[in-house]
Queue: 3 jobs
Job 1
Amino acid sequence: MKRKKVLLSLFVTLLLLSFITSGCGDNQQAGTDADNPIVLKYAFFAPANTFPAQQMEKWKEEVENRTNNRVKVELFPGGTILTDKNMYDGVKNGVVEMGLSSTTYEPGRFPLLGISDLPSGYPNATVASKVVYDLIQEYPPEAFQDFKIITAFATEPNYLMTNFPVSTLQGLQGKRIRISSSVTPVLTQLGASPISMSMAEVPQSLQTGIVEGIVTSREVLKDLKLVENLSYGVDYPLSIVTFVAVMNKNVWDSLPSDIQQVIDELGQEMAIWTGEYKDSHVAESLDWSKNNHAFELIRLSQDEIEAWNQVLQPLQDEYVADLQSKGLPAEAYQERLYELISQYSQ
Ligand code: 3IO
């Protein structure tokens, strides 16, 4: 009797063991070969044909190639999983492994980045992206402490685009103009009524007349067909918008070190690639908009340029002084900003 019982329990144990080991076979460590890749879901708030989403496609291609497909990247642009409102929190909470959003959309959360977003004389998106990428490495934002920063880049300096012609400050007073939220003081200084919203909401707001114009980079005239509601631009460079792509920290820590190395190598490369893509795309969009939609870029008179300079000039210094008085290294950051702009503009 007793012997039968022992045999039975031995049999049950062996059966369990075989279940467990076969289970292990299916769960073989991901990332060791292309048949069992590490899957990274990567989300963004705006449509797939916009430049930040094109950056994601390029990153996916490079990471998959350079890891021999041991990593598989799944892209979710268009706000399908996370929007600009919950992107970074969603990544932190593990809704997706990676997310791309704009620090400029979140006033107060990234105080030092707010300095480099204000008008600083960037010649184009390539220089702005290189500068912002370096600043983020040198001054890692506290709000990203629990994230791995994957890459960062920026727009070209943004321009005012409207459905009515603007050639003076006077003509802008009280107009409802969309801008991204951290840089609304730019429009307040110019005398307009700023309305902040995500780029994802811009097309409809223009169509329904909620706003009469926008401040942003000019590739969206073509990519989002905004030229259908915007006939004029003012040829005066304003603030930039900064983007940072992040990965969940636990996911990052779990990656094999050679895969981490591939991703780290791509950080600055992607900043440069995106800046260059963006600049060529802006040129193409402007040509297309002028030729197909009679879009007009208005040059300000010298007197007007001086008037615009005068109202905008104090903005950055005042903001820096405020942050400095709160104990942040704002002056050092600002100094480094101009050093990097001049270094990368050569
Ligand atoms: C942007 C955001 C999403 C898709 C395309 C885009 N082009 C420029 C931006 C930055 C932005 O939101 C802004 O306020 O200029």
Job 2
Amino acid sequence: MKSILEFGRMREQGEKISMITCYDAWSAKIIQSTPIDCILIGDSCAMVMHGQPSTVFMEVETMALHTRAVARGAPGKFLIGDVPFLAHRKGLKPLMDAVEQLMKAGAHAVKVEGAAGHLSHIAHVVESGVPVMGHLGLTPQSVNQLGGFKVQGKGEEAARRMMDDALSLERAGCFALVLECIPAPLAGEITRLLTIPTIGIGSGPDTSGQVLVLQDLLGMDPSFKPKFVRRYLDGYTQMRNALEHYHLDVKAGEFPVKEESFV
Ligand code: KIV
């Protein structure tokens, strides 16, 4: 299993870091068999797995449940568990309780969105022996404040603020930083400014690594195709065709056959 030291070394040596989201044991088992560097049990789980309109609806207990499932499926991967909506904004005790739940569920690190107002709490988590991944740019838990899922860090002032936040998160002890949906030149600039790795999503090629939502990469939702997603599979069509084929076989009495039956 890779460690945060390995991720730092990869950044230094210019080796890109591959991260993928995962929420369940069976896909974790597939990821386990690949060389992918680390897994994020993201709170995007609220939208992808639970059909919620945003990540605001995720709870710590649900994150822990999904983290446990992924840990069972991918025991050899470095797992990062997302601290969900407001769990880091209610004071140190609720944050530490959330971190404890995620770590005891099998995470090796936690991810916390944003910087302003909870930097000292992040430092406390790090000082407690828990690696923290920061997250700047389009922080989906703040979607209502941001006015929608929009590119962030546009314009000099916003870019300057994000660079300051990135430096503050590094100083607070974060071992890596997700940069979501920011202009590629800004992501490159932040990456050069920091000594910790940056993991981009919708932020161009000049970050230390990339993350995608597994179901986006697999093309599971034909109605969701943001510019930054590359589909490596038409999973929706393939799965739909398989289900239709099964249905037709059952209707025609062609499943199961003798070889698929006990005698
Ligand atoms: O929740 C999530 O999946 C994330 C990634 C998109 C970075 O935060």
Job 3
Amino acid sequence: MISKIREYLVEVEDFKTQSKSELEEFRIKYLGKKGILNDLFAKFKEVPVEQKKEFGQVINLLKNQVNEKIDDFRNALDSSDTHKQTDDFTKSGIVKELGSRHPISIVRNRICEIFSKIGFTVAEAPEIEDDWHNFTALNLPEYHPARDMQDTFFIEKGEKSSSEDVLLRTHTSSVQIRYMENNKPPMRILAPGRVFRNEAISSRSHCIFHQIEGLYIDKEVSFADLKQTLMYFTEELFGKSKIRLRPSYFPFTEPSAEVDVYWGLENEVDYRITKGTGWLEIMGCGMVDPNVLKNVGINPEEYSGYAFGMGIERIVMLLYQMGDIRMFFENDVRMLEQFKNEL
Ligand code: PHE
């Protein structure tokens, strides 16, 4: 029997082929269910004990050689197949275009990072909101004229009263309410997200845009803390820390202010974007109105805080000197490509 196996070994050693079907025949002959190797393993039982060791070794040797042979020829035949398809080795490879982040994401991430250094964490809430979180809890009761400041897209109009309305959030201030309802002070959050307003489309406005909201609630938070935070922020983002706060009105903050950053008047572009004043408006802010705190179960005698909200598009347009807000939604690759090197 051993000598028969040695014959097989020679046969395997000499085996050569150019065709896949011959290779398959060879495989079946040795490794198939009724193949030579299975047959030999079956006979192994009958081998006398003193020969078992030698017999086992040659069978294993045969098996390994068969496997090696098959692997070698399979690789050789496979690679000759692919060579046939791409005979022209001078052809250039397939170039994979690398994408880039959208400028809105770039700036949003940068703003989140700036605030994360002073302890703000990111919070999120739904884009489809109810009346309470978008308006009423923010000190904007039904019939309040300030609701007109934000033209709203309604998903469902309540039958009895507007308190049952379901709508697309008009600002990220709704995230303040959701967060305060579910957490205890002190809290310090940043809420980036999409917001929706039913506005006429022009080069300066759009129905979907992005905001970032900030909220800080703790004991003895003052307007001075707000101002210091804003100066830190404008210095980090624009490299400019000269700001001014103009008195303004928001139902959910008291007092309220609009924040302008001093951009400068050094060249024609500065004149154009600041309309000749040197100042640029970048966000709204104020001390959280005590009524808002009461609405979410926080005692305004014990806690105070500030909030601010800014539109991301406007800031991107300032940072990258872009003139038309519609560019953000067209996804023209020629625009996006310019942001390839930015993270
Ligand atoms: N929600 C306001 C807006 O959309 C911005 C704002 C946020 C103002 C927080 C004050 C405080 O215009």
